[in-house]
Fold this protein.
Amino acid sequence: MSINTDIFKIETNHIVPARGKVLISEPFLCDHIFGRSVILLIDHTQEGTMGLIMNKSLPLFLNDIFKEFDYPEDIPIYKGGPLSTDTLFYLHTLENISGSLPISKGFYLNGDFNAIKEYIMRGNPIKGKIRFFLGYSGWEYEQLCREIKENTWLVGKEDLNSLMNVNNSKELWKNALGKLGSKYEMWSHFPQIPTLN
């Protein structure tokens, strides 16, 4: 009996990367940082690409770093990527934070950290409003284009709520693939290392 190996063939969905879109790793990518990851593109220009991994939590909380944060819950920190891992980045939905970079409608990166701190110290909600990351992911322009051509990444569009909802970060990769259609959704059921099945 011959097996139809075409179902394992990863092929691009021909969507062009841009700020606010996401990169979704192909199912067999065996990389401890990027395997099964969803990366929000912060910027994509001829100079290069910057993104934040949205679904890899760290065993660290913001409350551990900033002892003055007297917040009733632990504030999780995510691994944004392998570059500048000592730098804190934050995505938020707060308007009027000076210096913020708009990523898409109602969605911002960084800005005045004191204003963010003040917002938290007042006891305002963080879930769905602010997410924190250490480090970022980066590519030279040609490098990302090449990796997309090699079908390492699919480009998708995630809605703001699912990206800000930390409760679903473990399911984010599977859900993002599913939104691209049934063929891609089927990939989410493949084992990451097929020989281990």
